[in-house]
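Query structure, 336 tokens:
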């Protein structure tokens, strides 16, 4: 019971990081395309809460390290290069955003900070997706072997992992666009973002289809596992059914209903991926795997970890609610 509950919390953490952290990363990507006129809105939208979004990733790492140490060691060894690049991107992005937003002196350096912030947003979420692609795609060999490239490069430097990275990048930008629609007050700004949001959905749909096609032609088993799992199909249908309602809410400017429905849509998409992985954490290239059962820590450790997570849940969510209530009481304007 302890193992399953901890694994469920791990999955929830990944879903929340995809939605909230994805919106955070996506805001930087939107700024890259829309330009300086979006800076004021994005700064006011994410400045109070951007650090809190990474909490979900930290929770997932803590769960893996303490609850499933063998899977953690395998993951951090075989995929240490893309993980290191993700951490580097988070640091660069966070530093650039902080200096740009809180620096008292407004000079030419702010343009440099903006460039770093925008491109590191793409860089970070792309390699996050590449890392996830290696976990879902079954590209990691079960043993280190004698070849450096076979174990440390090929598992993530391939077309399938790249397609997952592109999909997550577009999906994060789509999430950010949905959330930012509620932050603009000018009609022009809303219309620009609304058109951009519709195009992002089409791009995410095409990139998602690309993942299945690459899995099929590269003879990976991701597409077959997804299509043969009833619950993943239900999740995919639910995410698709939400599309016309989302488009109608964009037209009606129903901000909070739009955000909730878009969040549910992302929940369906990510959950559809997670259910086909259960109970595995890492699927190897020879179809063996590391599951939550054969990598779980001793029972005493799992008990303490679960109690700590339950205590954290009771304190984190009220604190986050208060944080959003305090800093989201004023609307922000998309500068012309």
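Result returned for the query:
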């Amino acid at each position: 019971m302890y193992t399953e509950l901890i694994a469920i919390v791990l999955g929830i953490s990944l879903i929340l990081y995809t939605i909230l952290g994805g919106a955070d990363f996506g805001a930087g990507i939107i700024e890259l395309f829309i330009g300086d006129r979006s800076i004021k809105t994005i700064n006011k939208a994410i400045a109070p809460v951007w650090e809190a979004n990474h909490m979900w990733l930290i929770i997932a790492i803590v769960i893996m390290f303490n609850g499933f140490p063998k899977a953690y060691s395998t993951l951090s060894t075989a995929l240490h290069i893309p993980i290191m690049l993700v951490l580097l991107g988070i640091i660069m992005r966070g530093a650039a955003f902080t200096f740009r937003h809180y620096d008292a002196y407004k000079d030419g350096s702010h343009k440099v900070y903006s460039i770093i912030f925008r491109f590191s947003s793409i860089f970070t979420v792309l390699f996050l997706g590449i890392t996830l692609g290696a976990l879902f795609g079954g590209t990691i060999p079960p043993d280190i072997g004698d070849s450096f490239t076979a174990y440390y490069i090929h598992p993530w430097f391939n077309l399938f992992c790249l397609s997952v990275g592109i999909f997550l990048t577009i999906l994060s930008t789509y999430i950010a666009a949905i959330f930012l629609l509620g932050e603009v007050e000018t009609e022009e700004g809303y219309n620009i973002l609304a058109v951009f949001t519709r195009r992002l959905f089409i791009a995410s749909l095409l990139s998602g289809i690309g993942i299945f096609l690459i899995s099929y032609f590269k003879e990976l088993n991701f597409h077959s596992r997804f299509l043969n799992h009833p619950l993943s199909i239900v999740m995919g249908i639910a995410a698709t059914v939400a599309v016309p309602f989302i488009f109608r809410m964009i037209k009606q400017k129903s901000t909070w209903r739009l955000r909730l429905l878009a969040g549910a849509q992302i929940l369906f998409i990510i959950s559809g991926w997670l259910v086909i992985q259960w109970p595995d954490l890492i699927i190897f290239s020879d179809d063996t795997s590391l599951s939550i059962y054969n990598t779980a820590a001793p029972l005493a450790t799992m008990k303490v970890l679960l109690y700590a997570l339950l205590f954290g849940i009771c304190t984190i969510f009220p604190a986050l609610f208060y944080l959003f209530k305090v800093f989201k009481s004023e609307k922000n304007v998309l500068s012309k």
